[in-house]
Design goal:
Helices cover 26% and strands 27% of the residues. It has ten helices and 18 strands. It starts with a strand and ends in a 6-residue tail after the last strand. About 6% of the residues have low confidence.
């Protein structure tokens, strides 16, 4: 077996899923894009195994890919638009919940004879989708024409005022029309706190919490990506290598690793440098990249190794000093992957109880 391999300790992974479900009020698993590295089908099967009453997908096009594996309610997170033929066709499905983020779209969906299930999105400080605070009072005009499932509030990941924002927007939404509040990017504890604050008569407000990365990839020691060694070549200082024929700066080894841009190697999403130390590291890394060096995500002999050049489509060249014994062809080495941007070649189940 060669390529990028995601090894999953299934018993530990499922124990993590059970724990998150038990701790999370109204958990709604999110399954979109590349299926967080596991694949859309596998995560749909796991959501069904957890007996989730709802699962969220990103796009209307993803519904057909998971419907045979998850038969409860599906929520499409990307808001409906009148020119989306697939999303419009799904309005007739009573188990498909459509997100609406504009008053004119709510009115258009409300004209359907089927009274489609609908979530109404509230605009947050993300400024992505949603009906503005000042427009919320106009929403009830159309709610008797749809199956209103509640309000969806998609918060930013960072920031110290997320709980306050969730409470303020939730209160404004509930003042316009009662219904469950569907949150993203709160912790379970924060969600309960908001529910308690917005509750009436001693009862917490009904809330749902959508989880993706933290649910599927948040468990410690539940999964580890590996990459196979495809070839090993000795090189000497000054020898030219790679597409760009760069000179080696020292004697060593060229290690040909499985994985390239088609698997997401070297294609990670940008991260924000918020501290002085992080900014200094970014500056230093940028300087090295300008000189033709970039640190790879591959770990050999306990250290991340440098790319010789940018990753190829399905393989990558890294440099190993002569003082380090090279791995053998066919060996697996750890590779750091951002799973929501990765495409793995093989998913291998491992049982921690048996070690297999």
């Amino acid at each position: 077996m060669s390529g990028i391999i995601l090894r999953v300790d299934v018993p530990r992974w499922r124990e993590h899923l059970r724990r998150v479900r038990a701790e999370t009020p109204g958990l709604v698993p999110v399954n979109k894009g590349n299926g967080y590295g596991y694949g859309l089908v596998r995560l749909a099967q796991e959501a069904a195994r957890m007996e989730s009453d709802s699962m969220a997908v990103g796009l209307a096009d993803e519904v057909a890919l998971v419907r045979d594996h998850f038969t409860a309610d599906l929520v499409v997170l990307t808001p409906w638009r009148p020119d989306d033929a697939v999303a419009t066709g799904l309005l007739a499905d009573p188990n498909l919940v459509t997100t609406v983020s504009r008053l004119e779209d709510l009115a258009a969906v409300g004209e359907r004879a089927e009274r489609p299930p609908v979530l109404v999105e509230v605009l947050t400080s993300m400024r992505r989708y949603g009906i503005t605070h000042t427009e919320l009072s106009r929403v009830p005009t159309w709610l008797d024409r749809v199956d209103f499932r509640g309000w969806t509030i998609h918060l930013p990941i960072s920031g110290t005022d997320r709980v306050l924002e969730a409470e303020q927007l939730g209160r404004a939404a509930l003042a316009a029309a009662p219904g469950p509040l569907w949150f993203s990017h709160l912790s379970a504890a924060e969600t309960r706190e908001v529910a308690d604050r917005l509750g009436t008569g001693g009862a917490a407000a009904p809330v749902r919490l959508r989880l993706g990365t933290m649910l599927w990839s948040g468990g410690a020691n539940t999964h580890w990506p590996m990459a196979t060694v495809l070839d090993v070549h000795p090189v000497v200082r000054g020898q030219r290598v790679g597409y760009r024929q760069r000179r080696c700066l020292a004697d060593g080894w060229i290690i040909v690793m499985a994985g390239g841009t088609s698997q997401g190697i070297g294609m990670e999403a940008p991260t924000a440098a918020s501290s002085l130390r992080q900014r200094a590291i970014s500056v230093a890394s940028g300087s090295m990249e300008a000189a033709g060096w970039a640190l790879s995500p591959y770990t050999v002999a306990g250290k991340k190794r440098w790319f010789i050049e940018p990753p190829h489509m399905q393989s990558s060249l890294i440099f190993l000093p002569r003082s380090v014994a090279p791995p053998a062809i066919g060996d697996e080495v750890p590779v750091r992957l951002r799973l929501n941007t990765a495409v793995v070649d093989h998913l291998v189940e491992v049982d921690s109880g048996t070690g297999s």
